[in-house]
Sequence to fold (374 residues):
Amino acid sequence: MGIGISAHRLAGTVAKFSAVGTISSVDLRRHHPDLMAQTHRSRDKKLIDSVNLIALDREIKAARTLAGGCGMLAVNVMRAVSEYASSVRQACASGIDAIVVGAGLPLDLPELTAHYPKVALIPILSDVRGIALILKKWMRKNRLPDAIVIENPRYAGGHLGAANPQEVADPHFAFPTVLEGTLELFKQLGLERERIPLIAAGGINNHQEVRELLALGASAVQLGTPFAVTKEGDAHPNFKKVLVEARPEDIVTFISNTGLPARAVRTPWLANYLDKEAKLKGIAKAKPCTMGFECLAQCGWRDGIAKAGQFCIDTQLAFAVNGDIKRGLFFRGSEELPFGNAIRSVQELMQYMLTGQRPTDLKEPSLERYLLPS
Ligand SMILES: Cc1cc2nc3c(=O)[nH]c(=O)nc-3n(C[C@H](O)[C@H](O)[C@H](O)COP(=O)(O)O)c2cc1C
Fold:
């Protein structure tokens, strides 16, 4: 989770408890004061990109130390970022176990990682059509995904795999539909059911739901928001406070500057932006990148693309990870959190999700959701 929400502390701790801990690759220099000092006012893309690769290497190594030889470590690289290829290469060179790619179709990931055949490749997709496309393209290159994250845009946080905000709740994204459809697709392609583990993500917040997803054919689940608010989450405490205190009516879906729908908490900056969105789109025009390092391959704000969001995402996400409630953009999934507004440890969260056992000092929530949403 970017930027800086899942760095070495969260990912390393998750791996320590034998799961897959994922570091987001984007703009990790923000966790390194010495690297920030080098680039603070710089608009030198080469310099900023190079220190971000140093930060990625440091984060992977620190997470590895924390994990103490347990679990697996992954790096998430968004396909939409301009330094996608160099981040993938750096993660491989730094000894990562898996590369997870969302926010676009990673058609070229097998070639990019060809020198690292032991690195697991895990695309994030949201529907059977996207999964079929990746499978068919990769099979022509003699490569299969080592797992697939199926992320439901109706519930997930951050960027969503739907064409627009109106489409996020479309029934073709429902977990039962995508899991059953994917297993059917495997049959058609002559792939054994066990060959590619399916990992469900988006709004998963209780043990019973994990059981139901496993019964439907998932092999694992991925959690975003519940991990972001753990004690070990790498963001400022204010970031966690905003996420845990958000009420359902505070959580909104809108178009980000990537052109993709995104889900976040309606904090003061986002409310103000959404009020002005139509006007800003009306006057969109190409301009120099606000931060100077052109983090996205295509940016609605920089490139003047009127149908995409009109703001600098790096600026707003950096405010959020640093705990600036007024100015930050706080990505969050739509669902209740497993422990309400309590900030608990990774270990407690994992124990609850895997066994149903809640920390003894936390009361049962009154409105726990025990059924898969339709
Ligand atoms: C704060 C935040 C940042 C995120 N950043 C990324 C990201 O950089 N790349 C990505 O593929 N997914 C990102 N996501 C999505 C999560 O990885 C996850 O798949 C999704 O949020 C699952 O839904 P949940 O939050 O309801 O568990 C982010 C989610 C959150 C809440």
Notes: The pocket of flavin mononucleotide is lined by residues 1-2, 5, 24, 26, 76, 78, 102-103, 124, 151, 155-158, 201-204, 222-226, 228, 331-333, 335 (CB under 6 Å). The chain is about 35% helix and 10% strand.
